[in-house]
Amino acid sequence: MRSIRMARRALQVASHEHRRLADSPPQADTNSDGGGGDGKKSGMTIMVSILVVVIFCTLLYCIYCWRWRRRNAVRRAQVENLRPISSSDLPVMDLSTIQAATNNFSKDNKLGEGGFGPVYRGVLYGGQEVAVKRLSEKSRQGNVEFKNEVELIAKLQHRNLVRLLGCCVSRDEKLLIYEYLPNRSLDAFLFDSNKRSQLDWRRRHLIIVGIARGLLYLHEDSLLKVIHRDLKASNVLLDDNMNPKISDFGMAKIFDGEDGEVNTGKVVGTYGYMAPEYAMEGIFSVKSDVFSFGVLVLEILSGQRNSGSYILQHGQTLLRHAWELWDKERGAEFMDPMLGDCFAMSEACRCFHVAMLCVQENPDERPSMSSVMLMLKSEQMPLPLPSEPPTFARLKPSEDFRKSLTTKSDSTSAHSVNEVTITAVAPR
């Protein structure tokens, strides 16, 4: 309506200007006929120019209003789509209940913060402990990721997947309520020089096998074929008995094809764990998760993070270091020194071998998760020789970034953070 009124007003102004020019007395000139004609032409030109400008501005305004209304309609639709989650799928909790459980999201109850937003510990009225993920306004994730995680986890049930207890959508608040795992995430132990000693070989082997079981369920055994796309140490939670549970399904995708791959225009995840075909071309498949699993196994075996700080210290990625030792048949040197001699050499070597198969550059050469499980559990199963992992080219970091990486590697962290490394994937 406002744009129509503006157009009418512009037409009135143009009409008034035309009448003023038409009614004005002709100026005295020796060539009166030519002067009058020029005056009329000049007036007509001015009127047409004004009309063109007004129509163009009105058109721009209409386009702006249309886009604004469409954007808000999409936002409203997203919020409305989040609301009709029936109790049969997932319980919907009141915001007041969550505020009371977390002491109104107090700092004392904050467990950490990731890409989704802060995570708080809460205690419900019945005494049940929960972990509450709160969507941050500055979060890289949004309504789509929130709904994606709700729909996926509500339909996935496995002992090696984190259990979603409920959700809450109220005004601007979007909350996910999970089972509380007091040991938090794997990275809090694995990359902490003080806590890493608690991960003896038996626990590390159980964690590797447990993660493999969870991925196998996602890829092949569940009703939905799911690709996680962001498997890493901070997205593996540990329960009271140090059993692993895969979490954070905001980036996950349901895979429709039986065998194949999908090309996406949006690359999400963490580069240190990202398969080269996904990082460079946006192509992901179940083999992308297999690559991430291989990187994670190498981190569990070595106690080192495949990140920019590792590159600064060693001049190469953890994958390249692992390949050098493999090529020289010195795989035992890759093991975490904190393990000492207290580990089963045959099991460790088999895990190392399987990890090298998972991080091969060609996705077709990587094993499926069902094959990974067989290779991990069966000592009699022969393992093929792996090919070389992808080459990663290091970007030249600034001095301030070097200091921040050094500080991060030396300090301990009580929570998990989605770390994007400074490594960039380059073709060989």
Automatic annotation (TrEMBL):
Residue ranges of the region described as Disordered: 15-38, 386-428
PROSITE patterns for the chain: PROTEIN_KINASE_DOM, PROTEIN_KINASE_ST
Source superkingdom: Eukaryota
Gene Ontology MF terms in the entry: ATP binding; protein serine/threonine kinase activity
Stored Pfam families: PK_Tyr_Ser-Thr
Compositionally biased spans, kind Polar residues: 404-421
Name under which the protein is recorded: non-specific serine/threonine protein kinase
Entry keyword Metal-binding: no
Class in the EC hierarchy, top level: transferase
